[in-house]
Amino acid sequence: MKANRLGLTLVLSAAMVSAAVADDDVDLPLNGDFRGAAVGRTCAPGWILNEQEGESRILATNDRDEFALELKAAPDRAKTVRSELHQVPLLPIFFSSSVLSVGNLLTLQLEARGTGRAAFGFEAFDDTRVKQTGSGSQAIALTGKEQELKHAFALPPQTRFVRILLTAEAGSSAVFQDVEAEVSITQVTLPSGTAEPAAR
Length: 200
Fold this sequence. Notes:
Layout: H1 2-18, E1 20-27, E2 47-49, E3 54-60, E4 67-73, E5 79-83, E6 86-87, E7 99-115, E8 117-125, E9 132-141, E10 147-154, E11 161-168, E12 173-189
Antiparallel strand pairs: 1-12, 2-5, 3-4, 4-12, 5-11, 6-11, 7-10, 7-12, 8-9, 8-11
């Protein structure tokens, strides 16, 4: 184990000096435009509402092919919608003849407006789809004007699936639209002749 860790350190050190770094970006198939449900319905396909108090409804936007989701929370309890689970590619550190994967980021981008406070984030799971490996959330102060929001989260090790969460905090009303989720896989091309550590 120690030898493997030492080998990994040496590979990364060499890569930092002379290797080429590239990001492979994968868009998750999220229904971020809330299509597939009539205006006024409580939710859209691909999303699951919590059963707590509060209200939700699909809203029309200026684009007839895109919709928004409004969440109105109860005075003392948040209102949350969760996406279905989406598979995340290529999470563990791995070695090939010339490429080393060194980490993944989940970037969420969306538009929001409303009153009060809201949050957007994720829950991560292992390959069983049951055991949670971690989570992350970004809080925002809502205004009556539309805000373009973006935040990158580091995905925990052993993550194989993620779902996206949108929340209107207690006493708040939030409108979400144009929600996008992207996984960035950072890869390092190893210098010619770099020795690889033994397989674990």
